[in-house]
Amino acid sequence: MVNWTNFDALDSYQALKNVDAVNVREVMSGESGAQRVKKYSVPMAEGMAYNYAAKAVDDDILAVLQKLSDEAQLTEKYEELYNGAVINTGEKRLVLHQLCRGQLGKDVVVDGVNKREFYQAQQDRIAKFANDVHAGKIVNGKGEKFTTVVQIGIGGSDLGPRALYLALENWAKTNHTLKMQAAFISNVDPDDASAVLNNIDVEHALFIVVSKSGTTLETLTNAAFVEDALKKAGVDPSKHMLACTSETSPLANNDKFLDSFYMDDYIGGRYSSSSAVGCCVLSLAFGPEVFARLMAGAHAADETAKEKDILKNPSLLDALIGVYERNFLDYATTAVLPYSQALSRFPAHLQQLDMESNGKSVNRFGEKVNYVTGPIIFGEPGTNGQHSFYQLLHQGKTIVPLQFIGFKDSQIGNDVVIEGSTSQKKLDANVAAQIVAFACGKDDENPNKNFDGGRPSSIIIGQQLNPETLGALLAHFENKVMFQGFVWNINSFDQEGVQLGKVLAKRVLAHDTDGALAVYSDLLEI
Amino acid sequence: MVNWTNFDALDSYQALKNVDAVNVREVMSGESGAQRVKKYSVPMAEGMAYNYAAKAVDDDILAVLQKLSDEAQLTEKYEELYNGAVINTGEKRLVLHQLCRGQLGKDVVVDGVNKREFYQAQQDRIAKFANDVHAGKIVNGKGEKFTTVVQIGIGGSDLGPRALYLALENWAKTNHTLKMQAAFISNVDPDDASAVLNNIDVEHALFIVVSKSGTTLETLTNAAFVEDALKKAGVDPSKHMLACTSETSPLANNDKFLDSFYMDDYIGGRYSSSSAVGCCVLSLAFGPEVFARLMAGAHAADETAKEKDILKNPSLLDALIGVYERNFLDYATTAVLPYSQALSRFPAHLQQLDMESNGKSVNRFGEKVNYVTGPIIFGEPGTNGQHSFYQLLHQGKTIVPLQFIGFKDSQIGNDVVIEGSTSQKKLDANVAAQIVAFACGKDDENPNKNFDGGRPSSIIIGQQLNPETLGALLAHFENKVMFQGFVWNINSFDQEGVQLGKVLAKRVLAHDTDGALAVYSDLLEI
């Protein structure tokens, strides 16, 4: 049995309080820096590596982090999770998103259903459906092929799948596997749905309505909005709309839809890219084989997350260093900086993943904790960010730990040598330069041109962003967030913080308001 | 003469240390809350209002903030700025972006050139050029009309113009003033340029190369990348490319371009949307009249920023409340949350504007300051964020001040009544609900469902996002950041923090590396 103990009740918590801080500038300078970059690297799945040379750790701190991992039973808790324990205590649910991408441990059987088989069966059904659409066996009312797929969903039903789609869109075009263009409608702002509908060929579009509960206000509104638009265009909505939902939801087995595909309560929204939620849109866009490759990459990362030795487990190590930075170095934020334009929306996905999972103040038993928990996550692709907010990162008063991601090869492969180097080399030269600039700084007599350095970062390096490496990245961060939640002894799998706003919004729409809410409603003329 | 004094040397700094904190939850509950929402509102330009009822201020704190404004001579410093003082001390430059949108004070004459006339002349030249393109007087090599305009720029030459284009794209379509589709190439990642080129009709595209110095590595690389692609497509680049640069740059008056339009050293990159940088792409996309309306809105906001009474000056008040939160309530971040899908990239622009301007550790004389300066800015449109990172904002351990933006009307005007309300009303109901949820919280016996409240926010409310209100929003935030820089006694108009990375990247590309930099270069196979 594992023990669920508050972080500050652990011996290793006290030990971490007493470790000698590492001076990043000092250790990253000269030959010592070179040695660190060689040494402080962990292989990741799919040929990638997590390099943490520029983090404020050394062998002593790593040893304490290993003790923390052992004492908090982090890998044992992971084992419990994938073997089907009720890890989501608040909602009394299992947490099974990893099972969507492969078997990690025992069979997980709930009410007589083997869950791995259930998830696999949905993927198979979706694969058949997608192949039939691509082959022109499933067609629109006029017997014509569908060319566009539109995801209607919000939060986890939007950010993850959208980030993954954008991450592979150009790779798929280059590799001749872009079967359908995808678009996304998420916001209840009517201009969101209108703009998407104005930009696509509605008569050849398939719409996926994605809501686990089948009751998400924004999504149902947008589904009705689209239904209305289809009718106005003389198109039968039931021939153009799918549902992706739980089997017990009002959207399931509903005549309004061409077909329905299922996830269940054991897949949290922000973890649902691996479930039918991601599978539908990505299989339709790229073909089921590409989705299977994405899952294979994620599964490989899930396997590496089992390793007890933190120096062999990249997501665990990343998690522990993050905890050290958050709780002992007092860094409240983390920037995610992919040097890959294809990952333009990956930071937005990680923002949800991390902040919604670990932005909590109570432990898994509902008791207030006396230490800080999940950080604030933000980020934009480099090199763009360099010409924007990096000023504060380099010279501001607040230190922000940085998570770089870089690839050796581009996706499209179209490149030009200008002044002796390709754009891809320039891109990579910039990320290498930034790590060192942040870590080592540079003295200048003019304080305005002085760089203190000492700003920690890590980098994940891969050969190319493709389905496998993308899947491994997705799982790396999911598992990092999971391990951090275990350290903080919080439930990373519920989101009670989103409820109050929903309740009050309903009251506004029902004109059942008083006090400040009534006046805001008046000001906004609701 | 104004005095440039460090913030912590002011009497009002000490006074702010000693004010009684406001309990947001308490004052925003019940009738007191209703009264605050009515009272704590300042009219903004273009019919908008800045409502700060849910901020942690009261009449006493506001009185001290007024003293701070007077003591730090904030509006006098603004007056110095727009009358042509050398406000950018580090680079010994004037700061004249406001002058692009109208005359605020005296004539500013440099080397015999009246700068307002210079900026106006560029706008007039661009207007004529854009009208000629739209009328088919300026055409491609085959005598055909241009249909697409592509901005090649990075940082301020990208984020601001892109955010403004996206903010008005659907408005322009709806109002039949979308003259050309716009696209943007910014990242040196070759996949960025390749993807844009693959998605447009290159033969009918005009490319604007935007770099004030004419030496920005990423932009010159992408310009060469595009030039190469045009040649491969059998198109003469000089008939498809414009330059937007300073008159002394290598890009100016260059045969490689169809024409060149100019800004000067007194327009910082992140403030350049009002200069030729924004004027070119937006005039080509929407027509010069729309750009003129945008500038009129910004100028109106600049005029309101002159007001000495902080209760009549929304950008000044917003700035001062932000300073109080940053320096005395110790809030290190601020989230920008527009309830408008059209403002999807406006937070990214504000992130640059704020973090690059005020992410500094030295004062305007180059001396280290002993107080924190600019916050970390992030944000996504609501309602999307509600289903993502709002969990942490509601129940996390770190309080994040919130800046909401909302409009009564949508841009496209296409809306549907579903369950008794339009999508626009649902959108607005959500923003009203969130403000109250964050401020007032809600007690629950189950601590996991408990909301402490006390999380401060403000909201800017407008009738509709259109050129005038967008211009006013742009200027509001520019002026807010400017006033905050004045309080902190820093130079908000340079960005020395971006230099070191550039230098090191050049060394990597020249293979002139050692230590950690050499090993990172090896790992990335540069």
Automatic annotation (TrEMBL), chains A, B:
One of its GO terms (biological process) is gluconeogenesis. The keyword Transmembrane does not apply. The keyword Iron does not apply. Its main location: cytoplasm. PROSITE patterns: P_GLUCOSE_ISOMERASE_1, P_GLUCOSE_ISOMERASE_2, P_GLUCOSE_ISOMERASE_3. The active site is at 356 (proton donor), 387, 502. It is found in: Cytoplasm. Belongs to the GPI family. This is Glucose-6-phosphate isomerase. It comes from Absicoccus porci.
